[in-house]
Amino acid sequence: MSRILTISDDLYVQLESLSRSRGLSSIEELLEQSIESWQTTEDDLSDRQEVVQRIDELRERLFAKYGEAPVSVDLIRADRER
User: Fold this and answer.
1) Does residue 2 form part of some domain?
2) What are the distances in angstroms from CA 75 to CA 6, 67, 80?
3) What is the pLDDT of residues 16-63, one digit of tens each?
4) How far apart are CA 18 and CA 24, in angstroms?
5) Does residue 4 lie in a domain region?
6) Residue 58, domain member (yes or no)
7) Considering the domain boundaries, does residue 30 fall inside one?
C-alpha cells in the first residue's frame, strides 16, 4: 500500500541533498536506511540494558557473598612508596 505525504519544499530539498550526499538515488532509500538505523539503535539499547542488568545481578551476588570490598587507594599508595 502506498501513502502520500505532503512536506514543505525546503524539507524536500534537504532530504534530497542528504540522500545524494550519502550516495543514494532517492529520498525513499534514505528513509529506508534511516529506519534500519533506528531499529539497530533500538536493538543495541535493548542489548545494553540487558548487559547492565546482568552486571547489577553479579554485583549483588558478589556483595552477598563477600560483602563490601575495601577501597584500594591506600594499598596502591603504600605499594608506590616502597
Assistant:
1) no
2) 67, 19, 9
3) 999 999 999 999 999 999 998 888 888 899 999 999 999 999 999 999
4) 9
5) no
6) yes
7) yes
